[in-house]
Amino acid sequence: MPKCLVCNSNFNPFVNFGEMPIANNFANLNELISEYKFTMQVGFCESCYMVQLVEQPDRERMFHSNYAFYSSTSEYMKQHFQRFYTQIKEKQSLSSKSFVIEIGCNDGILLENFINENISCLGIEPSKNVADIAISKNINVINDFFDESLAKKIAGEFKKADAIMSANVICHIPYIHSIFSGVKLLLDQEGIFVFEDPYLGEVIEKNSFDQIYDEHVFLFSALSVSKICKMHGMELIDVEPQVTHGGSMRYFISHEGSKEISENVGKSIANEKSLGLHRNESFNSFGLNINKIKQDLVALLKKLKKQGKKIVAYGATSKSTTVTNYFGIGPELIECIFDTTPIKQNKFSPGVHIPILPYEGFHKSNPDYVLLFAWNHAKEIMSKEKSYMKDKKWITYIPEVKIT
Ligand code: SAH
Ligand code: TYD
Ligand code: ZN
């Protein structure tokens, strides 16, 4: 029986997705001949309320100098991180004397806002290709994995941080105690640690099972995050829901006793208990819902294909690797995936090897149906493509299979 990464208790997996490739391994066909796979199972620990992967690939397999996710591909996300910046600046009354750290700064989408206002910052980013873009924006970046040992080195060179921030990164890191110990060491007595990640409550409510892939080791809730904080002499002082990545939660954390606790924390925990996010049984029906989506989507795609319809997909997301591999959807059903990210273009999708083509060819491809893999960006994408899609249909599958 697997042991919980947080509290070491035994727990039971509730869904087994079978063999999965690295979700962001968009590669050439010759590189995909002996593709690495791992068994992807997800489970819930009833002792500390953490939903987690049973097995994780080594971090160097996922985060390296060819990392395919570039944060700045979405205009909406740029605005989102500008608002994130403003909120932290106001909350901590930041000035040119302040110092902030970001864990997993990627191409600098958040920290560039601090640079523009002359607030000192440090980014930590192990994936060199995206770190180099942040560096080209004059951001000070350490090209390494954040953990307690790196935090000790940083502590010797930099002053304590007024804010430590992280978006869509903490849930990627199995050695979570090392992260919290490192943050504890680097955070000023009055500082705040603010991170956001896809939210367990939304995943369960929306059936957004595709948030589960190699990089997403944890699905957090206020229940589980407050438990980890306590283990490190820290405190969850506020939570704020976000619409990004299909429904996320931003967690605000301080040293224990240093700040007032917002009533939002108690309210969120009560709401999570009413959803059953503290009980094993609640996760059993999740697996059944996923299989219903699988049946419906595969049946729809096969029916349309039989009718001679042309189906392409939009957005070579990491999430789509779970969908295509678990459902068995390959190039026989989806001709190709269009995407704006240069590093993914003219490559093939992990596991099922659907061709990825440059977005510029999308309008010329003239499909009958477009499967939206980047469903979390539906608002931005559907409004951008509105006139082109007039006589064509979108297919979405979260929270259920739908044609629009
Ligand atoms: N914060 C950005 C990027 C999220 S993608 C955004 O929200 O868009 C996840 C990023 O975390 C990747 O760039 C990856 O290289 C980085 N990462 C993974 N493990 C890390 C670790 N231990 N320390 C710091 N960054 C890490
Ligand atoms: P995203 O859903 O943010 O990520 P994840 O990999 O975490 O599942 O990825 C969005 C992908 O969709 C990315 O490869 C860029 C692409 N994309 C487009 O091609 N066009 C667009 O208009 C947008 C917003 C994204
Ligand atoms: Zn546990």
Explain what this protein looks like in three dimensions.
With 404 residues, the chain is an alpha/beta fold. The protein folds into 2 domains: 71-275, 3-Layer(aba) Sandwich (Rossmann fold); 282-403, 3-Layer(aba) Sandwich (Rossmann fold). Helix content is 32%, strand content 23%. It has 13 helices and 17 strands. It has helices at 59-62, 75-91, 111-116, 128-136, 148-157, 176-186, 200-206, 222-231, 263-274, 284-306, 319-327, 362-365, 378-384; strands at 12-21, 37-45, 50-53, 99-103, 120-124, 140-142, 161-167, 187-198, 218-219, 234-242, 248-255, 311-314, 337-339, 356-358, 369-372, 393-396, 402-403. The strands form 3 sheets. A 7-stranded mixed β-sheet has the order 6-5-4-7-8-11-10, with helices on both faces. A 6-stranded mixed β-sheet has the order 14-13-12-15-16-17. Strands 1-2-3-9 form a 4-stranded antiparallel β-sheet. A hairpin with a 5-residue loop joins strand 16 (393-396) and strand 17 (402-403). The longest helix is centred in the C-terminal third of the chain and has 23 residues, at 284-306. The mean pLDDT is 97. Residues 69, 73-74, 315-319, 339-341, 344, 359, 374, 376-377, 380-381 line the site of thymidine-5'-diphosphate (TYD).
